[in-house]
Structure formats: C-alpha cells, structure tokens
Design brief:
By secondary structure, the chain is of the alpha+beta class. It folds into two domains: about 5-65, no CATH class; about 80-200, no CATH class. It contains three helices and eight strands. It has helices at about 5-45, 50-55, 60-65; strands at about 80-85, 85-90, 95-100, 105-115, 120-145, 150-165, 170-180, 185-195. β5 (about 120-145) and β6 form a beta hairpin. α1 crosses α3 (about 60-65) and α2 packs antiparallel against α3 (about 60-65). The chain starts with a helix and ends in an 8-residue tail after the last strand.
C-alpha cells in the first residue's frame, strides 16, 4: 500500500492545527479561571480581616476573603466559651463575667456577657448555656465524615441547650446547677462584625 506524500503532509498539517487549537483552549481556560482560583486560595490562607485588606485592594476581593473568616456573619461567628472562671475561644471580643454562690445542694451561677467595641453585635440566639452529663465510659458509634467511615466517641450525653436572653450588646442570666456527679455546664456566646474592621464607622 502506497502512502502519498500529499496525504501525509495534509495529515501532519491537520495534527499541527489540532494541537494549536487544544493548546489555545487550555491557555484561555487557565487565564479565565486564574483570578477566581487565586481569590479562593488566598482567602483560605488569610486568618484575619486585616490580612484580607492587605492582600486585596478591590471591594470584591476583600468581601470574598472576609466572608470566610470568623465574625463575617452569624453562619461564621466569633465564638467564645466560659465555664466558671475558665474562658476559651475568641474571648477577646467579649466581656464575660461569672459569679457563683454555693450551698449544700449546688451552685447559683450568674453569667454576664457583652461584646467589646461598637463594631460587634451579638448574633440572634447568640448566648447558649449547655448543661451535660458525662458517663464513666465513652460511647462510640460509626459515622460518615468526608466520605469515610470513622469512629466517633464521647462521654457526653443528655445535653440541654438553654437559650439565654441577649440583645445586640449582650445580656446575663442566673442558673442553679445542682451537685451531681459527672454534671457540667458552660456558656457559649457568638457575635459578628457589623462592618468589616477596615470599614468600621
């Protein structure tokens, strides 16, 4: 079977043109997807609002970056916990108070909480008092997390989530915690920025 040089030349030209078209398409797709990828990647690296401000000079870039940070909204709030005199989480954004008066049957606990600064507001339902019991031994169950079956173990059970009063600035409440073995209670508070910190009024 004879192969014509004309047919071979035509086939080679066709291959070159097809290769150029695929390369051009890939380059165009890479160019058009680059800004969105850069915003998402950099936003995931930013840990604070001021890092978002430094990395982005456009309002859109800052908004995308800030929307993923704690405090951007009540879906991603600033959150702190208080149990007696112990605090954890982002408590620098809150003024958290505790006072306890004991008797033979338990403790009368008074908690107070408010946001620090004019640019913060408590989230709706932003103060929850959690009262839990603990078992002597942890109870384990299999759950699916990120598509994989894992063993989830906890000693905590019978948790009551008590909604406590709060306005935009804070609130307070009193709870009588009875003396029972393996019973604990702690306060969880949540807040958001009213404006991004660089745009605070």
């Amino acid at each position: 079977m004879r192969i014509s040089w004309k047919n071979t030349l035509a086939a080679c030209v066709l291959c070159v043109l097809l290769g150029m078209a695929i390369s051009g398409f890939a380059a165009t797709a890479q160019r058009t997807s680059k800004p969105a990828t850069a915003v998402a990647t950099t936003a995931s690296l930013a840990k604070t609002a001021f890092q978002c401000k430094k990395k982005y000079h456009s309002a859109h870039g800052r908004a995308v970056c800030f929307s993923q940070l704690p405090g951007a909204n009540c879906a991603h709030p600033l959150e702190a916990e208080k149990a007696h005199s112990t605090t954890r989480g982002e408590h620098k954004y809150f003024k958290l108070g505790y006072r306890g008066e004991s008797d033979e049957n338990g403790v009368t606990e008074t908690y107070s909480y408010q946001v620090v600064g004019k640019n913060l507001a408590m989230c709706p339902h932003g103060a929850i008092f959690k009262v839990s019991r603990y078992a002597d031994e942890p109870v384990c169950r299999k759950i699916v997390r990120h598509g994989h079956s894992v063993l989830d173990c906890t000693s905590e059970y019978a948790t009551k989530n008590l909604q406590e009063p709060s306005d935009a600035h804070g609130g307070s409440f009193t709870y009588y915690l009875t003396n029972e073995p393996l019973k604990i209670a702690f306060l969880v508070v949540k807040a958001r920025f009213i404006h991004p910190p660089w745009a605070a009024k």
